[in-house]
Amino acid sequence: DAGITQSPRHKVTETGTPVTLRCHQTENHRYMYWYRQDPGHGLRLIHYSYGVKDTDKGEVSDGYSVSRSKTEDFLLTLESATSSQTSVYFCATRGGLETQYFGPGTRLLVL
Amino acid sequence: KNEVEQSPQNLTAQEGEFITINCSYSVGISALHWLQQHPGGGIVSLFMLSSGKKKHGRLIATINIQEKHSSLHITASHPRDSAVYICAVRSTKHTGNQFYFGTGTSLTVIP
Q1: Do residues A48 and A61 touch, judged by C-beta distance below 8 A?
Q2: Whole-angstrom Cα distance, residue A13 to residue B50?
Q3: In which band, very low, low, confident or very high, does the pLDDT at A96 lie, cut at 50, 70 and 90?
Q4: In chain B, which residues have their Cβ closer than 8 Å to the Cβ of A97?
Q5: Quick check: A76 and A23 in contact, CB under 8 A?
Q6: Cβ atoms within 10 A of the Cβ of A29, count?
Q7: What is chain A's mean pLDDT, rounded?
Q8: Alpha-carbon distance B73 to B76, whole Å?
Q9: Per-residue DSSP letters for A41-105?
Q10: Taking a contact as any Cβ pair under 8 Å apart, which residues of chain B between 54 and 83 contact chain A?
Q11: How far is the C-alpha of B37 from the C-alpha of B45, rounded, in Å?
């Protein structure tokens, strides 16, 4: 298993509060991704990074921002959480032969 | 319309049965992935295909690029195969690294 961890694993927060999710990898992979997974939808890309300080938007990026100041860390921030952002969030990296490695997920509940 | 469609959505099989899960996609791709998500939520990559067929143990994945279709087969199914199987494609539609995911096929294998 690739060394990908996410923190926190579970979070409950209130509408309007800022939330930051952290993804940490030990594989020195260049590409990192944030997805959300909701019932009835496949995994959907929020943002991705193709190197330190290099990021781009995915299909559901509204309300989210990201930062990558080090190869190993990719942060996802909800500036002002809304109930529609209640979801399970997965971080992933892309390794050799295009294999994607996923973190364990973060369950976020916005009340 | 989802770029990746899977069928069936749900599948129940008796232990030992041969299982087929189908994936159709509508975009140009550079690679197709099959992922497995266990009830605990963790996601692991099973296969990456760009052509032909791959086999790993009791799992076989095939892809037909012309027909934009892939199948995942499980021979001699076992209760431990119970999981959600997700098809994902890496699209050539974007210059970035866009992956599109199916909504998954939930497989239950009964002893």
Answers
A1: no
A2: 42
A3: confident
A4: 48
A5: yes
A6: 19
A7: 93
A8: 10
A9: S--EEEEEEEETTEEEE-TT-TTEEEEEEETTEEEEEESS--GGG-EEEEEEEE-GGG-EEE---
A10: none
A11: 9
Find the mean pLDDT for residues B39-57: 91
Tokens matching residue A11: 């979070």
pLDDT score of A66: 97
Residue B84 and residue A6: Cα distance in Å, rounded? 21
Q: CB–CB of A56/A65 below 8 Å?
A: no
List C-alpha distances in Å: A99 to A79, B11, B32, B34, B88. Answer: 31, 26, 10, 10, 11
Q: Which residues of B touch A50 (CB under 8 A)?
A: 96-97
Q: What is the pLDDT of residues A50-85, one digit of tens each?
A: 999 999 998 899 999 999 999 999 999 999 999 999
8 Å CB contact of B42 and A56:
no
Look-up: residue for tokens 């069936």?
B8
Range with the lowest mean pLDDT among A45-49, A65-69, B55-59, B96-100? B96-100
Read off the pLDDT of each residue in A1-20 and give the average, rounded to a whole number: 92
- Say if residue A92 is exposed, middle or buried (CB neighbours under 10 Å; 0-12, 13-18, 19+): buried
Residue B32 buriedness (CB in 10 A; 0-12 / 13-18 / 19+): buried
